Amino acid sequence: MTRDTGVNSLGFAKAPQDTRVVVAMSGGVDSSVVAAQLKAEGYDVIGVTLQLYDHGAALAKSGACCAGRDIHDARRVAETLGFPHYVLDYENTFREAVIEEFADSYLAGATPVPCIRCNERVKFRDLLETARDLDADCMATGHYIQRHMGPNRAELHMAADAARDQSYFLFSTTQEQLDYLRFPLGHLTSKAETRALAARHGLAVADKPDSQDICFVPNGNYAAVIEKLRPGAADPGEIVDLDGQVLGQHRGVIHYTIGQRRGLGIGGLSEPLFVVGLDAERKQVVVGPKEALATRKVPVREINWLGDQPFDSISEISMRVRIRSTRPPTEAIVRPTGPTTAEVELLTPEEGVSPGQACVFYTPEGGRVLGGGWIWRGA
Which candidate in 66, 118, 138, 359 is catalytic? Predict the structure, then answer.
């Protein structure tokens, strides 16, 4: 039990009951457990849920978050445990800051990651400001990532459970935000532990399935969403090889992704071909052999840096990087080209590197997150 004169579990030198914490509640089991745990420890808990998109559309979609049933579930957890809960309508903000850019990026032939932009532009910006307005000492979330106090400042570290680690989606967390945020689940070694805690607290969401896909993309059908947002976006065009030779026709660039092999409709060739490039301006899908997917040098911009030294004060930095959420970090050399830009050289070439994805930086050893940036095509 934390004594009033010591530092409590959230890092404040005062009693839990004198420490106000806003919990970002999505309605899922993770954030519900965070709220329940902190309430049980005696903290002054306030739950806040953001409504990010249309109630009607969400009610018919399972495995989503931030709408419909999930708002109801978050409210029910708060009522059961006896702490205040607020729902904030952020539909317009979410559409402008996340959905519109998602559509434009996809139309430009990129492969965007809207969950990162949502954390960056909505949850860790606007919601965090709401927490400050409520005079909270900090804001806690159900993300699987760890915050440790280093010798100089708060540091971001990968979750203890590598299978649940969400550091790829949180690389753009700024130092100022990190100072204010708390991640109470980051030390857990499995999702089973989280569900066991939910059951112990008697939460109705203990067995609720995890959210799947992007919240506003039903059944993972990106193209259908883009066509709805940008009528006429699925214009047909040519499928060409690396030499520009026309091999066939496609039904719209938005239906293809880098690394795709199936569904190209250009069979009968001597070797399998993969999508190696998307030229939205020319309405071309570029295909080539598997080895053409291998990339060694990756231009990165909009870098958020969480290291101890100024990013562009060193000519090159050896570290590990992750270029897709589903891949483990790989060794690389990062060469800053400015305060927020760099060229990343992968020591082992990676396949399927796509503009619009994130490149996340990690220390050569251990799990500290050093920030990251966005992959682009370069100048």
Answer: 118
